[in-house]
Amino acid sequence: MPNTRIHFMDFLKVFLSCTVIVHHAGQPYGGSNGFWYVRDSGVDSDLGVFFGINAAFNMSLYFFLSAYFIPLAYKHKGNIGFLKDRLKRIGIPLLFGFIVIIPLIMYFYYNEFRGYPNLSLFEYYKNIYLGFGEKPLNWAGPSWPDLNFGHLWFIEHLLIYSLIYLLLMNLFKNIKLPKIAFVPTNKHIFIFVIIVSLFTFLIRTNYALDEWIGVLGFIQMEYAHFPQYLAFVILGIIAANSNWIHHIPKNVGKLWLYMGILLIILNVFGFVPHSRGGWDSSSLIYAIYETFLCTALSIGLIELFQRKLNRKSKWIEMLAKNTFCVYIIQTPVLIGIQYALISVPVSGYIKFVLASLLGIVFSHLISYFIIRKLPVISLLFSGTNHRRSQSLVVNFHKKSIN
To answer: Which interval of the chain is the signal sequence (predicted)?
Structure first.
């Protein structure tokens, strides 16, 4: 059987996995403006520019890559098979994280950094996490009760988008859309950026960056980035049907990659007016800047990886198979590393580098042994079967051509 794996996607998945780990590795060391489980008050570093650049593109590109496999899995499995597969591979890990992993790390945070008398795990779980107890005085949040999905919000959204796709495919199953041979041009990309920028700005007039809302009481969402995330989910689904990621012109990919690098340089040297939101010019400029950066890096990296790294690597393929598990376990792994580094007398920047490197290594090592050596537990962390889906991509497009 010929090898039909899309190799550059393995490299891209591993790269994105590392950007998530590095983003979380820097949380205690200044500039994130968000909640985190470890407080290291002895550092004077500021990673705000890094957080802004990384957050501008990495999760949007992650959504794109994940959404790319949704229609392909649906075509292969059908309604019932697709539903069962998503509930098993995404729903079970999400549920396990919600009732086991998140309570444990929130329990650690409660006892170590909130300043309240220590509780047993059972007392914390019942009274604080589930909220059956009385809300403590001067409660610092981030919400009450502590019940939340934490870093697993991405998996929650991926499951919801999959279910919405299933619903739409059944509601409009009698509508036959024509297949379009689509290749993105600079004009297409520019129009996309402007539209998403405007929606992003309008959302941020009411919802600031890093402001998380419990939609319907259980959907954990940061509205400020929602237009970008949704746009890239739709873009990923379109890409699966038109296969345009393999046909981005080299000159288009290089232009947007260079543009993304230029935008990063402008940010690093302080030429970008950062804004968390609001109805003013700085908020509009930052929404446009961030969307341009997100799109430029995404298009540029996809084309670059496809052109330079579309080759077989057993090492990268092994790491790529573990990225779903890595995403789930990287937060507790980093918490342990960051907590151990509190007493280390070095600068916050050095701690950031150490936490990043150790987090990447240990998260991948632990996920490897979970998946390879503990097959029963690995069912909780298997995630979407991208290996099979990648084969379906090639087979599907071969049929479309014929």
So the answer is: none
One DSSP character per residue, 235-275 reads HHHHHHHH-GGG---HHHHHHHHHHHHHHHHHHHTT-S---
Domain ranges of the chain: 7-394
User: Quick one: average pLDDT of 279-283?
Assistant: 95
Determine how many CB atoms are found less than 10 A away from the CB of residue 310: 14
- Report how far residue 140's alpha carbon sits from residue 154's, in angstroms, rounded to the nearest whole number: 24
Average pLDDT, the chain: 89
Q: Return the higher-pLDDT residue of 394 and 209.
A: 209
Exposure string for 188-226, b = 16+ CB within 10 A, e = fewer? ebeebbeebbebbbebbeebbbbbbeeeeeeebbbbbbb
Three-state SS across 72-118?
A: HHHHHHHHHHHHHHHHHHHHHHHHHHHHHHHHHHHHHHHHHHCCCCC
Interacting residues of 188 by C-beta distance below 8 A, sequence separation 6+? none
Q: What is the pTM of this model?
A: 0.91
What would the pLDDT profile of 22-31 be if each residue is shown by its tens digit? Answer: 999 999 998 8
The DSSP secondary structure of 147-214, one letter per residue, reads: ---GGGHHHHHHHHHHHHHHHHHHHTTT--PPP------HHHHHHHHHHHHHHHHHHHTTS-TT-EEE
Whether the pLDDT of residue 308 is over 90: the answer is: yes
CB 305 within 8 A of CB 8: yes
Bridge partners (DSSP) of residue 220 are 214
**The pLDDT of residue 5 is above 80:** no
- CA–CA separation, 274 vs 339, rounded Å? 30
Identify the bridge partners of residue 222 per DSSP, sorted by sequence position.
Answer: 212
